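Thread: quick sanity check before group meeting

JM: Hey all, I'm pulling together slides for Thursday and realized we never actually wrote out the predicted structure for the chain we discussed last week. Dropping the sequence here so it's in one place. If anyone has concerns about the input, flag it before I start.
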Amino acid sequence: MFCQAHEITLREVSVSLGDDGVVWPSLRVAPKDGAEPHEVSLPEAITSSPKWSGLVVEVPTMTPAVLRHMVLPVVLAAVGPLDKTGWSGLMEAGCFSPSQVKLIHSYLEEHASQFDVRRFAQVPDLRATNGATKPVTLLMPHVPSGNNSALRAARNDEDPSPIPLAQAVRWVVHAHCWDTAAIKSGAVGDDQVKAGKTTGNPTGPLGQLGVVMPLGRTLFETIVLNLPITGRIAGDSPWWERGELDPIWKPRPAEGLLDAWTWMSRRIALIVEDGLEGPVVRRVVVAAGDRMTSTPEGEPHTTWTIKKDKKTGSVRSPRRLQPGKNAWQGMEALLALDREGSDFETSSLLKQAGDAQAEGLLGLDFPLRVGLWGLVYGTQSSVVEDILADELPLPVAALRADLDVRETVIEIAEQAAACARAVDALGANLRRAAGLDPVPWDKGQRPGTAVLHALDPVVRRMLIGLQQHGQDADEVESAHVAFERICAQVARTEALRVHAAAPRAVFAGREVKNPAGVKVMVREAGASRMFGAALRKALPRIHGAGDDGE
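JM (edit): ok, ran it. Output follows.
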């Protein structure tokens, strides 16, 4: 419930904000009551966050960019750092206290000059050495612009339609987080410019991660779930506390979360024009910015892959999202709570949510969601080939190693994958029986993909059920049996399609060499037996009880 005292405080402080002529960056928000999304100022988006179900964005990858670069660092710098008591107090209250609202507004007033929409995250007087500007579409990965023509759209840089200034600022933030690694314009004042340009630019910092963020029922809950329970590192600060931006950049490590979240990976200037309904942007200058020398060890918005090396020990690197895979297919990484002996490690914020539940700070039935985002880059990361985004309901109890829900969640994801592999193996063996090579794993459409697609809504319904009833062992077991029956039905249905597409020659079969080099006969009968055996192994509840899954 939106606190009445909080509403009064908002009215008290709203008078002071804006009196100095600052035009605040704005965000599009979705009201909880289902009303039409609308734009509100950054201060209102934050302090009234309990009223919004979430952000409304131009492209999915803008959500983590806006949260990390604008919303979270303001709250953390103004209200944090939080200990367990402060964190749990926010979750329990469901809104910022009146004193916290005043802290946020005071902080924004202190740095108001940097938050003015006409200069936010920009170098206002930035100029390219050749005096040229680029179309504003250069900031948009989903719109072909220059070399970035892998994605198709109706707009392109030959016709850069003007966009409102407020929207352009959100694209500036997105560029700082996700921009391609292409050559950038050389800027006047940058002594590292060569032949009017800079090369060797890495992608924006989020482009090097598979971004993972816990999400709540409201924007407020999402903010709190993404605030680490930790102290602020000495010297760590967002860019707006560091003074005016200029064209000079350098490679360096991030000094802490606030620095990493608001990383200035580019130097950008919007060329603002007067439009019929207010200021608009048609052209932009984008130059090189600071280069983060390594992903911070404490980066909370990614899962990790751990590779063992006899000489150097364990090497930890951010885990990227895999194109074509649903979020639950990476469940082993999302639920990897202990890095010892594991190939993965989960996000520290997901682990924090599990710890909070163990201490009674979150209910077992809390409807936690996990958002995942990534970009697929091509040609030396100079173009964007695809935008990846998914959202997954995740039982908070699955983030506790001492509860059975975790094993259930991992098992259902593995079972769905095993059914897909069984169908793929059937298709591969039938192709061998027909004298053909199996479809390569990285080329063509494999039949198991259809199984995963059909099971996607089933897995998600199962996860929601575990959120609501995960503490009832009998109900979980009953739901798991039903899940296995559906898996068997889906796998068998796709197997029939694979059989229907096979030539009659598969019944006679072919003699082929197995991986050990031994000649064996492959025919339809053997392929079907292997398929049945794979299903029985993957779905033990229905087959172990004499249930054939039909």
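AS: nice. The first helix runs from residue 4 to 14. The longest strand covers residues 278-288.
JM: adding both to the slides.
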